[in-house]
Amino acid sequence: MRIAIVTDSTAYLTPEERERYNIHMIPLSVNLEDGSYEEEVEITSSEFYDKVRNQKQFPKTTQPPVGKFVELFTELSKDYDDVISIHLSSGISGTMQGAMQAGQMVEGINVHVFDSEVSCSPQGFFVIKAAELAQQGASVEQILNTLEEMKSTMDEYFVVDDLAHLQRGGRLSSAAALVGGLLQVKPILTFENKVIVPFEKIRTKKKALRRVEEVFANAVQQHDQLKAVVIHANCEEEGREWLNQLAESYPNVEFSFSYFGPVIGTHLGEGSLGLGWVKKI
């Protein structure tokens, strides 16, 4: 029984990771004034932030057409018996529903869709673990059970400059955004019940990052082995500085470094920083 692993572009896996683990990727798109671009395919993260800085219109994002999934699943059906398709939280995108619809339309292969309930590199943690298990000969049931086990220790927090991007993109209520703007705070956001919600509002970015680290420190105390990732929105130097600080403070944690690409960057805004983690399984 051969199992294919599929994800979308918002896992922000590197081309090397996708090749090494034989992961298939469906891109989401970002719509700018000069056209629509498939992220990770037609536009890089740095190109996106450069373009947005000079545009008057707020960019919009688009989930993949169902036909893209149908095309990929049909191709995979030639060599695989099953697909495990892992996507960003269904609470912020219809991408997962598109994969489910396509799975019902394609014959000759069983499509199992998994809601990561997060996005970005933490979503990638699920994808890589699934791919590793598939390569080791695990069954679909074993892989999905492991992903559910991971979900119980998965957490992700974002520090953003303001809430306007999320509010304009429809990912946060106008009331929550208004309060953040009036207080001129640096909001900390997290995923709760599949949607992005305010966690706390802190006066300065430095204090906000420190608060996220406090939450992380509690997780380190609760779990012996953690994987963690620092994520940046076109502020690599600041992100690496935070990463180095965290790695020095928590030498037993396996850290990595990633970025908010065009689609997620549209909603968080340039200069955002994130920290995600999960217990190693």
Task: Give the topology, please.
Elements: E1 3-8, H1 15-20, E2 23-26, E3 29-32, E4 35-38, H2 45-53, E5 60-62, H3 66-76, E6 82-87, H4 95-105, E7 110-115, H5 121-135, H6 140-151, E8 155-159, H7 164-168, H8 174-183, E9 186-192, E10 195-202, H9 205-222, E11 226-232, H10 236-249, E12 254-259, H11 262-268, E13 273-279
Parallel strand pairs: 1-2, 1-6, 6-7, 11-12
Antiparallel strand pairs: 3-4, 3-5, 8-9, 8-13, 9-10, 11-13
Shape: globular
Which fold does the CATH topology of the largest domain refer to?
Hypothetical Protein Tm841, Chain: A,domain 3
Structural class: alpha/beta
Strand content: 25-35%
GO molecular function, one term: lipid binding
Keywords: Lipid-binding
Protein name: DegV family protein
Structure notes:
The protein has 281 residues and is an alpha/beta fold. It has 2 domains: 3-28 and 63-151, 3-Layer(aba) Sandwich (Rossmann fold), CATH 3.40.50.10170; 155-279, 2-Layer Sandwich (Hypothetical Protein Tm841, Chain: A,domain 3), CATH 3.30.1180.10. 42% of the residues lie in helices and 26% in strands. It contains 11 helices and 13 strands. The protein has helices at residues 15-20, 45-53, 66-76, 95-105, 121-135, 140-151, 164-168, 174-183, 205-222, 236-249, 262-268; strands spanning 3-8, 23-26, 29-32, 35-38, 60-62, 82-87, 110-115, 155-159, 186-192, 195-202, 226-232, 254-259, 273-279. The strands form 3 sheets. Strands 10-9-8-13-11-12 form a 6-stranded mixed beta sheet, with helices on both faces. Strands 2-1-6-7 form a 4-stranded parallel beta sheet, sandwiched between helices. A 3-stranded antiparallel beta sheet has the order 4-3-5, with helices on one face. Strand 3 and strand 4 form a beta hairpin. It is globular, with a radius of gyration of 18 Å. The mean pLDDT is 92.
